[in-house]
Write a structure and sequence with these properties.
273 residues, alpha/beta, 8 strands, globular, binds adenosine monophosphate, binds zinc ion, binds fe (iii) ion
């Protein structure tokens, strides 16, 4: 079984590379791609652990692009993780994540919610290539007892337009497609049903988009079929996976249940290293 969308502790997943590989093996996944947000820091370690279990690891990433001040997640597969322009771009993305968290943290303090954001973690994150995100602030709000759940932290403070919200700065989805191509990979638009980014698909296809993520836990059978036929009409490939963030991440655990059909992977595999 094939799962081309999983996260680790290098971004907002709960599983270390080693734990992730154990979970993948247990779920009988034989081909995977680690798609952490704005970092490839975990790819080599996952691959090293996966080898012994005969799990194939495709180089992957989930890059946050911005369009009309809304986030659009873009997946990249089979690129060169050492490509200089990509490496520079991702470091900039992570620096902006830290800038944004610091500004959001200041807003929380001003709101009378003086949480700790693990200063060491923020300071050492770049050395390890770790991508920080709002879940860090949500966890801090929860730990301090200001909210009763991560979801409440987003609903009341951190979500789009919330009192502690600070917009992201970033590249457009089309820029991300071009960057992934420069690095030798293929680009897929992540979970368009979740982001309600259907209107982006056609213009992005014209700009060189390679694939649509049709298989995702936020897509029901009807949505998956619709994205499949959309891809076929536009001459695009189909990707998919569980968007696994680890056990106890507060998300559905779709590892082993939301997978990419082997035929779709075979077509993708022809295009990647
Ligand atoms: P960031 O990358 O800093 O914009 O944070 C986005 C991440 O926050 C997402 O990838 C989710 O993991 C998490 N997130 C966003 N909205 C919610 C929500 N309503 N409840 C729980 N987690 C959320
Ligand atoms: Zn995530
Ligand atoms: Fe995503
Ligand atoms: Fe994801």
């Amino acid at each position: 079984m094939i799962d081309l969308h999983v996260h680790t502790t290098a971004s907002d997943g709960r599983s270390t590379p080693e734990e992730l590989v154990r979970q993948l093996a247990k779920a009988r996944i034989t081909v995977t791609a680690v798609t952490d947000h704005d970092t490839t820091a975990a790819v080599a370690e996952v691959r090293a652990h996966a080898e012994a279990r005969r799990i194939r690891v495709i180089t992957g990433i989930e890059i946050t692009a911005v369009r009309d001040s809304e986030d659009v997640h873009m997946l990249g597969y089979g690129f060169d993780p050492g490509h200089p322009a990509l490496v520079t771009f991702l470091a900039t993305q992570r620096a902006d994540r830290r800038r944004r968290l610091e500004e959001m943290h200041a807003k929380l303090v001003a709101l009378g919610l003086p949480v700790e954001i693990e200063p060491q973690m923020a300071a050492t994150a770049e050395k390890s290539g770790r991508a920080l995100g709002r879940p860090l602030l949500a966890a801090a709000l929860l730990k301090a007892g200001y909210v009763d759940s991560i979801a409440e932290a987003f609903d009341r403070y951190l979500g789009n337009g919330g009192p502690a919200f600070v917009p992201r700065r970033g590249a457009s989805p089309a820029d991300v497609v071009a960057l992934v191509h420069d690095a030798g990979g293929v680009a897929s638009i992540a979970h368009p049903g979740k982001l309600k980014s259907d209107a982006l698909i056609e213009p992005l296809a014209a700009a060189g988009l390679d694939a649509i993520e049709a298989y995702h836990p936020d897509h029901d059978a009807v949505a998956t079929a619709a994205y499949r036929s959309r891809a076929a009409k536009l001459g695009l490939l189909v990707t998919g996976g569980s968007d696994f963030h680890g056990r106890e991440s507060g998300r559905v655990d779709a590892m082993g249940t939301v997978t990419l059909p082997a035929d779709d992977f075979a077509q993708l595999a022809e295009r990647i290293r």
